Amino acid sequence: MKILTVDDSSTMRRIIKNTLNRLGYNDVVEAEHGVDALAKMAGVDFVLTDWNMPEMDGLTFVKTLRSNPKFAEVPIIMVTTEAAKKEILEAIKAGVTDYIVKPFTPETLKEKIQKVMGG
Ligand SMILES: [Mg+2]
Questions:
Q1: Residue range 84-103: average pLDDT?
Q2: Looking at residue 49, what is its pLDDT?
């Protein structure tokens, strides 16, 4: 399973990538914002994206993916500090599959991925 992790923080990308590797997901691609991510979507099975990023933020990235039939069904987890109910609802409305609030534990990431993948 190819996973794309999108975050403008290289530290956060490293944390997520290391966590995924430890969980057994070794095919991980990184992007630093929405524009970069859109260029790297080929063959991606699963997306983890930050919200606040330069160039193209996570919400716009999610909306752009969902407006493309090719990516309408790709599972997307938003990983962000935007934890207010209003923001969560906005992200769900934009088409995210699930939501993780930073800081998160490896266990949370694992549970969310398994939940989204249906097992
Ligand atoms: Mg950010």
A1: 92
A2: 97
Domains, the chain, ordered by start:
3-110 (3.40.50.2300)
Question: In the structure encoding, which two tokens stand for residue 38, read together?
Answer: 């859109």
Q: Which two tokens stand for residue 62?
A: 């999610």
Instruction: Tell me the CA–centroid distance for residue 50 and ligand 1, in Å.
Output: 6
Q: In residues, how long is the chain? A: 119
Cα–Cα nearest to 97, from 116, 71, 69 = 116
pLDDT at 118: 75
Work out the angle at residue 71's Cα, subtended by the Cα atoms of residues 21 and 41, and round it to the nearest 5 degrees.
50
Ligand 1 midpoint to CA 64 (Å): 18
Rounded to whole angstroms, the Cα distance separating 110 from 92 reads 20
Is the model's pTM score more than 0.90? yes
User: Is the peptide bond prior to 103 cis by the omega test (within 30 degrees of 0)?
Assistant: yes
Q: What is the Å distance from ligand 1's center to 54 Cα?
A: 8
pLDDT in tens, 19-45: 999 989 999 999 999 999 999 999 999
> Token pair of 40, please?
């790297």
For the record, the structure tokens of 36 come out as 């970069």
